[in-house]
UniProtKB/TrEMBL annotation:
Residues 9-218 form the YjeF N-terminal domain. This is Bifunctional NAD(P)H-hydrate repair enzyme. Homotetramer. Binds 1 potassium ion per subunit. Its EC number is 4.2.1.136, 5.1.99.6. It comes from Marinirhabdus gelatinilytica. It catalyses: (6S)-NADPHX + ADP = AMP + phosphate + NADPH + H(+); (6R)-NADPHX = (6S)-NADPHX; (6S)-NADHX + ADP = AMP + phosphate + NADH + H(+); (6R)-NADHX = (6S)-NADHX. The gene is nnrD. It comes from the Bacteria. Residues 228-500 form the YjeF C-terminal domain. GO terms for biological process: metabolite repair; nicotinamide nucleotide metabolic process. Belongs to the NnrE/AIBP family. In the N-terminal section; belongs to the NnrE/AIBP family.
Length: 513
């Protein structure tokens, strides 16, 4: 699914009306009807008071359509207009009249704090104050209205976007955003739903199709693309019946130093669990027995030094390499990395301390094989690309960096984001239980495991991020969040593969029944 900017959505709106010979008003009716259907399907005529707060733009217009329909279906609905300017949109005005025709009353006009209505905790609030047309932070009594809405215990449903938030730029004032319990977004989710500073205001959302011009949506370069189950299913390559272990590649995991050999264990196991035919771990001498015991399937090569990696000597050509987890940043290790980068032709995942080595020795960047996959967490990213003022600038800097150095960057976090050239892919799986030591080591092993099997670097990146989050989700079914460890993610990689097609099997069963 694609994510568009507010400007692109306004353009889609315009093109749809022109090409499909419908009016803006028709589109608003469609949008409002979708929201009404969603509510009606859940409320089933319940007489819970519904308070709809409308602005004076098209978001407010949507709110008026919903209010009219709820009224027509016998719901207990009250409509308020936050009359913050007299520049009411045309479609708002038409629907304002239509509400009056149906309810025989004008909605309640609000022009100051005195007009705020009483709201009981069990009431429902619909937020149609501002949509994607917000162009400055709400101030004065409008901000107070948002805060008043937030102070109630009512269920809050935002139309299109929580009022006070922008679709594609940072918040100006976090105190002036509706704290929606749920958001119903038209046609596509907004970029701000997925980034830490703004996404926290959108704990749950659904997308409602409103029939914007398919050609425009299809041909327009989006701000980002969402990777969810339908996309992930398409990445999957079936294993062949006559395959042998040589078919699925030989992954090399270069990881560990004294006290951090576990990183190599997690990564090597994850590579195997993701389907790599063979896995070799290259570790300092002190890691030999640990590896041979903890991952008996893996072969182990060791450095000549006991407690750190100083020279990576191989006796085979790896099909993919994951390097950096727990290796430290000592000068000898940096030299070993430099040699690896300049001599290897294998696709490579570069993580953790290898990224820190690069940050401290920027000349290494020029030596990276093209389309190497860098997997920084926010701290490592900052050391690579420099500081940012907000999440949106972070993405811009990351894209510029990826383009300049011809690499793929995986920005890890609650919604892991993959950047390649000018494009962004946003992962949708994962949970806060995965904020635990070693879970990144698992991801690196998984990416390398996919690379080894011949997945191209971009697909390996987005598919591994999806499966990694999905394995984490599967693990929570029996463990919850707190008890989840990186090893549990590894143990549930198989379940993540199975889950990819679980729904389809269910559907097939139903079809045959
Ligand atoms: N294609 C689609 O997706 C479809 C979208 N649809 C709906 O349209 C919505 C977008 O509507 P929209 O463009 O009319 O803007 P909206 O968000 O209602 O508000 C803008 C108004 O607020 C004002 N204003 C702004 N900031 C302000 C502030 N801080 N404080 C005070 N005022 C402020 C601004 O006035 P001005 O800047 O001129 O003073 C303007 O009057 C979209 O989210 C969706 O719900 C559907 O109907 C159909 C298809
Ligand atoms: N709140 C969260 N929701 C989803 N995934 C998360 C969350 N926190 C962390 N993760 C995932 O866990 C991994 C953490 O990686 P990293 O910080 O490198 O861990 P480590 O260095 O301990 O291996 C990343 O893949 C990240 O996307
Ligand atoms: K809204």
């Amino acid at each position: 699914m694609k994510i568009f900017s507010a400007a692109q959505l306004h353009e889609a709106d315009k093109i749809t009306t022109q090409k499909h010979n419908i009016t803006q008003l028709d589109l608003m009716e469609r949008a409002g009807t979708q929201i009404f259907n969603w509510l009606h399907g859940r409320m089933q005529g319940a007489q819970v008071p519904v308070h709809i707060f409308c602005g004076i733009g098209n978001n407010g217009g949507d709110g008026l359509v919903v209010g009219r329909m709820l009224h027509e279906h016998g719901y207990n609905v009250k409509i308020y207009i936050a009359n913050f300017t007299d520049k009411r949109s045309k479609c708002f005005l038409v629907n304002y009249d239509r509400v009056k025709d149906v309810t025989k009353n004008w909605p309640t006009l609000m022009t100051s704090e005195e007009d705020f209505p009483e709201i009981s905790p069990e009431d429902i609030i619909i937020d149609a104050l501002f949509g994607i047309g917000l162009n400055r932070p709400p101030e004065g009594w409008v901000k107070k209205l948002i805060q008043y809405i937030n102070s109630t215990k009512s269920f809050k449903l935002s139309i299109d976007i929580p009022s006070g938030m922008y679709a594609d730029k940072a918040l100006d004032d976090p105190e002036a955003v509706v704290r929606a319990n749920h958001t119903l977004a038209f046609q596509a989710p907004k970029l701000s739903f997925f980034l830490p500073e703004t996404g926290k205001f959108v704990p749950y959302f659904e997308v409602l199709e409103i029939g914007l011009d398919p050609e425009y949506l299809h041909t327009t370069e989006p701000l980002a693309q969402i990777i969810a189950k339908p996309e992930a299913q398409q990445f999957y390559k079936q294993r062949e019946k006559y395959a042998h272990k040589g078919t699925y590649g030989h992954t090399l995991v270069i990881a560990g130093s004294y006290g951090k050999i576990g990183a190599a264990v997690l990564s090597a196991k994850a590579s195997y669990k993701t389907g790599s035919g063979l896995v070799t771990a290259f570790v300092p001498e002190c890691g030999y027995t640990v590896l041979q015991t903890a991952v008996p399937e893996a072969m182990t090569l060791t450095d000549k030094e006991d407690d750190l990696i100083t020279e990576i000597k191989l006796d085979f050509e790896p099909s993919a390499i994951a390097v950096g987890m727990g290796i430290g940043t000592k000068a000898e290790t940096v030299r070993a990395l430099e040699k690896l980068f300049t001599t290897t032709k294998s696709p490579m995942v570069i993580d953790a301390d290898a990224l820190n080595c690069i940050s401290e020795n920027k000349s290494l960047l020029e030596k990276l094989p093209e389309l190497s996959i860098l997997t920084p967490h926010p701290g490592e990213l900052k050391r690579l690309v420099g500081d940012w003022k907000d999440d949106f600038e972070k993405l811009e800097k990351t894209k510029a960096f990826a383009k300049q150095h011809n690499v793929i960057i995986i920005v890890k976090g609650a919604n892991t984001i993959v950047a390649i050239e000018n494009r962004l892919y946003i992962n949708t799986t994962g949970n806060p239980g995965m904020a635990t030591g070693g879970s990144g080591d698992v991801l690196s092993g998984m990416i390398a495991g996919l690379l080894s099997q011949g997945y191209d670097p971009l697909i390996a990146s987005v598919f591994a991020a999806y499966l990694h989050g999905s394995a984490g989700n599967q693990a929570t079914h029996t463990l919850g969040f707190e008890a989840l460890t990186a090893s549990d993610i590894v143990e549930h990689i198989g379940a993540a593969f199975l889950e990819l097609f679980a729904m389809k099997q269910e559907e097939d069963k139903n079809k045959n029944a």
